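Exam prep: given the inputs below (a chain plus zinc ion), describe the expected output before reading on.
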Amino acid sequence: MRDQGNQCSEQLGERLAARGLRPTVQREHVYRVLLQDRDHPTAEQVFMRAKKGMPDISMATVYNCLDALVKCGLVKEVNVDRAAMRYCPNMHEHWHFRCDNCGAVYDIDLPPSRLRLELKVPKGFQPKTYEISMRGACPNCAQDN
Ligand SMILES: [Zn+2]
Ligand SMILES: [Zn+2]
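Solution:
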């Protein structure tokens, strides 16, 4: 998709180096897997996908790569359904929509700054981050009903 390839590996190399982590082909590969399908895969799913382009990558390596990507701020851990941790490479502030029917998790870009003004937080609390998760039917599943 487009020619983000080189840009992505440069950015990755820089980010890893900044945290004292080594850029490796595995880390780059796992990052690419995450960028490719933005459906918030679990580590298990990342592993299955990573194996396609790199048949001898191990689950332990995938965990290590995900950990490095999270540490260097390129990937976020998302816990949408209180089950397995999912991974999201969208570092812009956004929320998640989980489809009750197919289980897919979508990014929802809403302007959090606007909602922030409308949220009433009890006196004395100083929120720094907001997390909103929505559930329902995704467009594909909504059509079927
Ligand atoms: Zn769905
Ligand atoms: Zn996301």
